[in-house]
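Materials and Methods. Structural model of N-acetyltransferase domain-containing protein. The 172-residue sequence of N-acetyltransferase domain-containing protein from Aurantimonas marianensis was retrieved and submitted for structure prediction as follows.
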Amino acid sequence: MAKKPGRKAFKGLAPKGYRIRMMEPGEAEALLAIRRKARPAAPALPEFIRFLLSHEIFVLASKRDGRPVGFAAAQEHGDVYWLVVHCISTPPGAPVGEALIAAVTQRARWFGLLTVGIPATVDNPRNAASNERDGFVTVSRKELEDRLPHRKATGASEVGDLDTPMIWVKWL
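The predicted structure was written out as tokens:
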């Protein structure tokens, strides 16, 4: 099998047995199935495809068969790279969520962005502990905008439910 370009961009970030890559054509239905498993109220396929096309999609795939088992969607707004969706369909225990967040963070650094943001819309102690281990801190939306005065944290209403006053950020 011929190697595809860019396959090593996120080498070393995924746990054993997995790899991280960008979404490839024809994967929308597989990613929607993963999202529906994680969140049963997922959108219909046409709406989901529009979502995929408006974001950069990081795919966690099995090395054994290449099939997607998780994904993260991110979108640049000003100096912030927003991680807006993070769905995984793997057995518990593998640090696959952390690996996807590491890939998103690496890509943000490549773009020269100042921070990665995650809407803090769900009170989940396990995610909070993981985010803290990964170097994220919670800040208010106002604090984020104050720290990025020349480019307000624009796009927040477009990338997630940010009615919550808190956001997880990792300063790069």
